[in-house]
Amino acid sequence: MAKRLFILLAAFVMLNAATAAIVGGSSKADVADPEVVNAANFVVSSANTNACSGLCAGLQKEGELKLVKVLSASTQVVAGLNVHLELLMADAAGKQTVVTSTVWSRPWLASKNDAANPATQITALTFKPYDGTLE
Fold it and tell me: Where do the domains of the chain lie?
């Protein structure tokens, strides 16, 4: 009886380990999820106002950028939430750019209104012209 109980318990533990997400690991996110949409809009707004800690300094654009599509997204629970994004943006002239970015959100800091330690910030941002293909 003890042997059967042990085998059953071992099978349960192995099944749980196989299906559990790794703590701190990234998980694929739905591009329509409100957290993803908010993060994408934050990146567009930051790029349009050059408020991305110098990360978007070399971004060539004519007029304002608009979000065309969220290509992919994943989230990672840290001290807050990292939202990793791949975005397709277009400027006023129609030139499209693929932007890869990470937005770090800590909503509990929003009420403090501390410019040195904002509740939401871009921690990574790269960009490349969209040539009609996505890698």
Answer: 25-129
Q: Convert the pLDDT of each residue in 61-96 to its tens digit.
A: 999 999 999 999 999 999 999 999 999 999 999 999
Residues 6+ apart with CB under 8 A from 130: 88, 96, 97, 98
Spacing of C-alpha 134 from chain mean position? 18
At 72, list the tokens. Answer: 């992919």
CB atoms within 10 A of CB 31: 16
The secondary structure of residue 62, as a DSSP letter, is S
Tokens in use for 106?
Answer: 């800590």
Q: How far apart are CA 7 and CA 30, in angstroms?
A: 37
CB 106 within 8 A of CB 80: yes
Predicted model pTM: 0.80
CA distance 50 to 44: 10
Where does 25-129 sit in CATH, by number?
Answer: 3.10.450.10
Across 15-135, where does the E strand assignment appear?
26-28, 66-78, 80-90, 96-105, 120-129
User: What residues are paired with 72 via a beta bridge?
Assistant: 86
